[in-house]
Specification:
- By secondary structure, the chain is an alpha+beta fold.
- The chain has two domains: 190 residues, Heat Shock Protein 90; 122 residues, Ribosomal Protein S5, domain 2, CATH 3.30.230.10.
- 31% of the residues lie in helices and 25% in strands.
- Strands 1, 2, 3, 4, 5, 6, 7, 8 and 9 form a nine-stranded mixed beta sheet that branches. The protein has a five-stranded mixed beta sheet with strand order 10-11-16-13-14, with helices on both faces. The protein has a two-stranded antiparallel ribbon with strand order 12-15.
- The site of magnesium ion (MG) has 5 residues, from helix 2.
- Belongs to the DNA mismatch repair MutL/HexB family.
- Keywords: DNA damage, DNA repair.
């Protein structure tokens, strides 16, 4: 007689499911900051203020002036798989930064989350609290505009994850990097980051009256020198368009950390970029020198899959060779036009 397996397999509880998902979506404080700031951008905010105390372990607060939520939306927003962004379940034509409907539920599963919001055009504000996966009833609150998210005691309900947190300083720096990248892609939004005592990052809103909006914003983040040493990039190949700014070879760095790539407005990390940049600059720079650049690739949504990773930091291109070719040729073209010849610099 075979032993019966009945009763061994069971469905996990919603709370456990959320905590497992949270492990993927909210790996560290910077991932929570990323999700929350992306939500504010998606909500059409023109200013987003972030406060992180103790590297985000004690508090992450994100305040925006976006369209906000009414009581019903607020209650749904913190549920898993609840999103306002995926119209007709269409995973191809994704126009927003979010679409998975997991961030708020995940954060609520591993922290004490309070979401306070006022829907644009309404004069009532509401708040909902979620603690360790338990949702409380939506209550009236006071708020003049937009949405305020407070995340306290991150990972208090997942001690294993809590143990792996780096120093407050490291977590804060990581979050700063996340905000910086989002700020590069959204010059029309004002951003600040504060540690509770001091504002350490500030990107004022850039309006179209101030000349080249994108260069203005990049200059505010990467420095005035970048602005003065950057070549404009604008190239097309098939349905792909590459724009942005690339630093002159004479204005280079000892590491490749200042190479930023955005795909359809989404900051992505892709090894393809570093490789293409190395290829384009190889005649102009020694092997241990790297340019600073920010490139914005716009492609039809069917050309790219952003749903590769829960944190959405990676994307997959239908034709990576085409992307690489476009980047290399656009950079080479700009460098050649700027009259920098290989013979004038130390080649590696
Ligand atoms: P997603 O962003 O993938 O939709 P989230 O869990 O991050 O999932 O958010 C769920 C929903 O809550 C969003 O689709 C949006 O409707 C709403 N929401 C979240 N943050 C904000 C915000 N700052 N302002 C307005 N609405 C928000
Ligand atoms: Mg989101």
């Amino acid at each position: 007689d075979l032993p019966t397996q009945a009763g061994i397999i069971h469905l996990l509880s919603e709370r456990t499911i959320n905590r497992i998902a949270a492990g993927e979506v909210v790996e560290r404080p910077a991932s929570a900051v990323k999700e929350l700031v992306e939500n504010s951008v998606d909500a059409g905010a023109t200013r987003i203020d972030v406060v992180m105390r103790d590297g985000g372990k004690a508090l992450i607060q994100v305040v925006d002036d976006g369209r906000g939520m009414d009581a019903d939306e607020l209650s749904l927003a913190v549920e898993r798989h609840a999103t306002s962004k995926l119209k007709d379940d269409d995973l191809v034509n994704i126009a927003s930064l979010g679409f998975r409907g997991e961030a708020l539920a995940s954060i609520g599963a591993v922290a004490r989350l309070t979401v306070t919001s006022k829907a644009r055009g309404s004069d009532e504000a509401w708040a909902v609290r979620v603690e360790g996966g338990h949702k409380n009833t939506v209550e009236p609150a006071a708020l003049t505009t937009g949405t305020r998210i407070e995340v306290r005691d991150l990972f208090y309900s997942t001690p294993a994850r809590l143990k792996f947190m780096k120093t407050a300083r490291t977590e804060y720096a990581q979050a700063g990097d996340v905000i910086k990248r989002l700020a590069m892609a959204h010059p029309d939004v004002a951003f600040t980051l504060s540690d509770g005592d001091r504002t350490t990052f500030r990107a004022p809103q850039v309006t179209s009256l101030t000349g080249d909006v994108r260069l203005e914003r990049l200059g505010a983040i990467l420095g005035k020198e970048f602005r003065e040493n950057a070549l404009e990039i604008d190239a097309e190949r098939e349905e792909l368009r590459l724009t942005g700014f690339a630093g002159l070879p004479t204005y280079s760095r000892g590491n490749a950390q200042h190479q930023y790539l955005f795909v359809n407005g989404r900051p992505v990390k892709d090894k393809l970029l570093n490789g293409a940049v190395r290829g384009a600059y190889q005649d102009y720079l020694a092997r241990d020198r790297h340019p600073i650049l920010a490139l914005f690739l716009d492609v039809p949504s069917s050309f790219v899959d952003v749903n590769v990773h829960p944190a959405k930091a990676e994307v997959r291109f239908k034709d990576a060779g085409l992307v690489r070719g476009l980047i290399v040729s656009a950079l080479r073209h700009a460098l050649a036009a700027a009259g920098h010849r290989a013979s004038t610099t130390v080649a590696g």
